[in-house]
């Protein structure tokens, strides 16, 4: 696959670089650009990877991963367009931005693959969804899939589903963290020491995730197995239903999808 450059080394850019290193990729094959010098220095010393200018990234990298915020895409593409080599593959991690936007602003026939990853990439457990743009071949998709397989699971979806994917698995870890945080608060309310509450909830989350991952059963059946007739769990479930938690999740994820669509539209005003 050659050299990979990450343009914009923030939270997800760092997660990718760190995940690739843990997955066995050599630091010499990885480059990054970063507009904040202190951040660049921090990453260079933490991972031993090289901070470069966008010119160097374009000249040296075979695969360029764009990991800036959607709102910051304009200057990156303006700078990159005249420098990009015809053989380079461009991968966008930007929420909401369609491949057509990149194709319009980069040289003709530039292969672009849109990816929606998530931060568990840091621990090799990302969920990434890939969609090829109109000039990306099966080989390009395969290259990106192999790259992301080093840091987690990968699925291919039609690009029309990427806004939904962004709302579901792109943002998904945040919903689980929010739930864990709220459950730890409940432990505090019940008088448990914080460290004990944290341990109880984190291990419950790990155990539940492992059961789901290992195919121990459908989530409904797994929940039913915990919910004893006349027991404790059903009292909690009744409160969750009374407070509309299921409806809140549907509305929340729909709102995230709508924001992804909006981010794409906002950057298409050219
Ligand atoms: N944080 C997450 O969980 C996920 C984020 N994404 C996408 O990844 C992208 C980055 O998100 P985050 O990492 O959360 O944002 P972030 O703000 O942490 O990182 C963006 C980085 O890009 C740098 N940057 C901006 N313009 C630059 C330029 N012209 N040249 C060099 N560096 C530049 C910023 O200084 C910053 O460090 C976004 O498009 C987001 O939609 C996708 C999936 C998950
Ligand atoms: O919140 C965001 O916009 C990014 C995209 C998916 C997860 N984080």
From TrEMBL:
Swiss-Prot/TrEMBL keywords: Amino-acid biosynthesis, Cytoplasm, NADP, Oxidoreductase, Proline biosynthesis
UniProt keyword Metal-binding present: no
Molecular function per GO: pyrroline-5-carboxylate reductase activity
Coiled coil: none
GO CC, one annotated term: cytoplasm
InterPro entries: 6-PGluconate_DH-like_C_sf, NAD(P)-bd_dom_sf, P5C_Rdtase_cat_N, P5CR-like_CS, P5CR_dimer, Pyrroline-COOH_reductase
SUPFAM superfamilies, A to Z: 6-phosphogluconate dehydrogenase C-terminal domain-like, NAD(P)-binding Rossmann-fold domains
Residues reported to bind NADP(+): 67-70
Pathway(s) annotated for this protein in UniProt: Amino-acid biosynthesis; L-proline biosynthesis; L-proline from L-glutamate 5-semialdehyde: step 1/1
UniProt function note: Catalyzes the reduction of 1-pyrroline-5-carboxylate (PCA) to L-proline.
NCBIfam families for this protein: proC
Designated name of the protein: Pyrroline-5-carboxylate reductase
Organism: Saccharomonospora viridis
Gene name for this UniProt entry: proC
């Amino acid at each position: 696959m050659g050299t990979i450059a990450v343009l914009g080394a923030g939270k997800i850019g760092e997660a990718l670089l760190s995940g690739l290193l843990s997955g066995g990729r050599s630091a010499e094959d990885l480059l990054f650009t970063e507009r904040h010098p202190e951040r660049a220095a921090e990453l260079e010393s933490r991972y031993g990877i090289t901070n470069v200018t966008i010119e160097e990234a374009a000249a040296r990298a075979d695969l360029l991963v764009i990991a800036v915020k959607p709102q910051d895409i304009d200057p990156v593409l303006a700078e990159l367009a005249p420098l990009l080599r015809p053989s380079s593959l461009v991968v966008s991690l930007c929420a909401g931005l369609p491949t057509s936007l990149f194709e319009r602003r980069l040289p003709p026939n530039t292969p672009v693959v849109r990816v929606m990853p998530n931060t568990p990439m840091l621990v090799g457990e990302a969920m990434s969804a890939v969609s090829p743009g109109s000039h990306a071949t099966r080989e390009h998709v395969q290259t990106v899939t192999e790259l992301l397989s080093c840091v987690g699971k990968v699925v291919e979806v039609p690009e029309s589903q990427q806004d939904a994917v962004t709302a579901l698995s792109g943002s998904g870890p945040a919903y689980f963290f929010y739930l864990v945080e709220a459950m730890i608060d409940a432990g505090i309310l019940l008088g448990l020491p914080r460290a004990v509450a944290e341990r109880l909830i984190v291990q419950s989350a790990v155990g539940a995730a492992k059961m789901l991952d290992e195919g121990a059963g459908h989530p409904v059946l797994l929940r039913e197995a915990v919910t004893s007739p006349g027991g404790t769990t059903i009292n909690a479930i009744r409160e969750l239903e009374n407070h509309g938690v299921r409806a809140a999740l549907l509305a929340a994820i729909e709102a995230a999808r709508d924001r992804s669509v909006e981010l794409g539209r906002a950057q298409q005003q050219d």
